[in-house]
Design a protein that fits this description.
mainly alpha; two-stranded antiparallel sheet
Length: 109
């Protein structure tokens, strides 16, 4: 899967925001919520590995953008299937475990 994170570019084009402190001020003014400067810097400088939906909502509300404006996800090409894993249904009969356990009373002591 290919992910393109264009957050800095979109903020610069739509709002002329170039610094994290400007974005932090905008978010505080529009939503009344404070996001740490470090988190904002992380979102501006690199594609985040994870981002909470609540944070996305706050950013979109403050900037008037949608998620599609700064995030583009394209599916990757389907990979060839490797060898199949054996499951109970497609395991050969000779490799299956014994279904009936011996009765302990049949053994002599």
């Amino acid at each position: 899967m290919t992910i393109k994170w264009n957050f800095r570019k979109v903020l610069n084009e739509k709002h002329s925001l170039t610094s994290a402190t400007d974005l932090k001020k905008l978010i505080s003014e529009k939503t009344g919520i404070t996001i740490s400067l470090q988190n904002i810097c992380n979102y501006l400088n690199a594609t985040p590995a994870m981002i909470r939906l609540e944070t996305i909502e706050i950013i979109c509300t403050a900037t008037g953008c949608t998620l599609q404006d700064f995030l583009e996800v394209t599916p990757s090409k389907k990979k060839k299937k490797g060898p199949r894993k054996l499951s109970y249904k497609n395991t050969p009969t000779q490799k299956k475990a014994v279904l009936n356990f011996p009765n302990p009373e049949d053994y002599e002591l």
